[in-house]
Amino acid sequence: MDRKERVKNVYNEIQSGRGNPKAFARLYQLLMNEIDLETEFNPDRRTNNYLHNLLQTRDKEADIYLKVSSRRPKKGAPTEYGYFIQAFTGDTTWSLR
User: Fold this and answer.
1) Nearest to 69 by CA among 55, 79, 59, 56
2) Which terminus in the chain has less CB density within 10 A, N or C?
């Protein structure tokens, strides 16, 4: 599978988890796998914008979601989950241009 096809599959996986915070663990693992694959492809964040964006999503939106949801275990963090989905979707759509 080539890179573009892989990113399309990632995009489709993200869409399947949209609106379902219970899918976070699966999507977070997908994010980490993408980071690993992109690091193997080109580890330079200055020239691999997709990798740079994925790392920002991990370090910002995913981290915020994890912190907020752990502080509110019953209520959860649906807003932060939405931000995570939005950022991860944006990473993939930007890469597909």
Assistant:
1) 79
2) C
Phi-psi region of 47 (alpha: psi -120 to 50; beta: other; left: phi over 0): alpha
84 DSSP 8-state letter: H
Place of tokens 């509110």: 72
pTM recorded for the entire structure: 0.93
Q: Are 48 and 38 in contact (CB under 8 A)?
A: yes
Torsion of CA 90, 7, 96, 32, to 10 degrees: 40
Q: Which amino acid, one-letter code, is at 75?
A: K
Task: Indicate the residue type of 63.
Answer: D
Which parts of the chain sit beneath pLDDT 70?
A: none
